[in-house]
Amino acid sequence: MHPFALEILKKYWGYEQFRTTQEPIVMSILEGKDILAMLPTGGGKSLCFQVPAMMKEGVCLVISPLISLMEDQVRSLTDRGIPALALTGSIPYYEMERLMNNVQNNAYKFLYMAPERLDNEEVEFQLKASPINYIVIDEAHCISHWGKDFRPAYLRCRKLRDWFPSLPIIALTATATEKVQMDILENLQIPKATVLKSSLIRTNLAYMIYKIDNKWSRLERILLKNKESSIIYVRNRRLSEELAQHLCEEGFSATSFHGGLSSEEKSKRLGMWRLDDVQVMVATNAFGMGIDKPNVRTVIHWDLPNSLEDYFQEAGRAGRDHQKAFAIILYNDSDVRKLLVDTQRSQVSVPFLKELYPKLCSYFQIVLGEGEGTTHIFNLADFAIKTQLDALKIYQGLEVLDRNSVLSLSQAFFRKATVQILLSSREVINYLERNPQEKELLFFLMRKYSGIHEQTISFRVEKIAINLHTTALQIQKKLEKLKNDSVIAYKSENTDAEITFLMPRDDDRTINYISPQIKWYNQHKIDQCNDVLKYIGQDEKCNQRFLLEYFGEQTKENCGICSHCIENKQEKLTKEHIRTISEEILKLIAHHPMSSQEICLISPYHEWEILHVLTLLLNEEKISVLPTNQYITKE
After folding, report:
1. pLDDT tens digits, one per residue of 131-141
2. C-beta of residue 183 within 8 angstroms of C-beta of residue 147
3. Total-model pTM
4. If phi over 0 gives left and psi between -120 and 50 gives alpha, with beta otherwise, what is residue 189?
5. Which of 142, 505, 585, 620 could form a Cys-Cys staple with 151, CB 3.0–4.6 A?
6. Is 215 helix (H, G, I), strand (E, B) or coil?
7. pLDDT digits (tens, 9 = 90+) for 73-110
């Protein structure tokens, strides 16, 4: 290893050596190669490019998908005395120009920006005039249609090869299948890049799969036995709130995290969890990239994940301190049916797009052969009412057209208003006695958004308008009145949503052109669903081996700690071990009955050992089960 690299590592980060998985990446970067590097979650990807960038004159350009991720990186660097800048969307034009002038004058060592910035001609001009030394594409799987977090904006990163043909491009990700790897290399125009991949084996992480009817009981038992930090992943916002509330009522410290929270509320809850003020974070997949907490003991999937890519990355947030940790899936037959239904509902068919696209063009009075490059203000609620199309399907369809470059949706299309009810339920009732015309909207908000009295909720005005069979304008007027009456805190969307058409109107021919990609994408989602079901249903292979092989890594060794390996060990329990556990159980229940959960909590043995021996004792009629599901010794 280059001695100057080790000097910088020690000076700014306090480490004596790189990890064995980091060394080949650092060396390849120092040699000026294009690189696709895959390090598992928590593997220290950032250090791999940050140290080499510090050894070279100029500024390292980093493309990153999330503002929070960029801000965390910049904060971490500046805390170490390294000047870094993140160009987020909140920076006004005149300020951006000043900051970019500073970049050109070497005032910063790292420049972070989102891929959307690459569409700005001024940014292009300023970057080309800057002393860029390396180009880093973080979370590079976002550029792949096969990737779990595919973002069309990431395809703009291919421009960087044209702008800087001689600079090394470093693509980083945690996991990538063979298909995703090929997509990354092709889309970034680095076909001859050195591909470096560390092993995905986590010797401290046990992948557990439990098919059970009573998930609540098992969840409580897991959290009682593993009292350190936990994440529970669920599929929707309401369940995240309800599950967190239930856990609090049962004596656990818990909070929730989802995309409907304000930035301030997200930061507050994340801070509480990071500081261990709460044990459990119940979250949707909005709780994702950039979450780095070393002492997470359990990551629990209450709902089945959409894909194994999702699952593997989310599960990998457990045990980053290299201590024993658990990645647990709890499921039943109802969860399987729900995953199948949700996968089907997420499909956008070619026939639907052939209905949606002409109606969209007609809505804006665009005739055949026209419309390319034109931008239009768009109101989803008004369009849904006039076309009699389902609002959710419209939303999904527009995202598909955006992903396939038929049109472009402005950032405002995804922006949401925020609201919080400031009055208690009783005070709301008193207010409605005087203002009955506001009853429908207020009752809808209270039914739809649990926790709206305690926190700020994000929502789309158009969707509420559709549900209440009115216009977005009417809803906005009512919200403004409620705000003026001090009933709610309300912040409206500050920009109209816009749609820009990227090609002339050609109706069916336009959709036929992109139909192979649409059909492929739909099938890809079905395949991902089937892979999840195959994983939870298989009983022939170690769970970790199954996941490793899915990501292209072969190993002959079983992990020995996953649920599959443990079940196989049950058959190998010695008579002496069974006798010891039997004596322990009989001693525990000799004076008062106990449930299996209570026994598991105070016994030093594994749960599967306890349950196995309880079954043997029942068969030998040494114990019996009371109607309360408690065990007692037979006289």
Report:
1. 999 999 998 88
2. yes
3. 0.70
4. left
5. 142
6. helix
7. 888 899 899 999 988 766 666 677 888 888 888 899 99
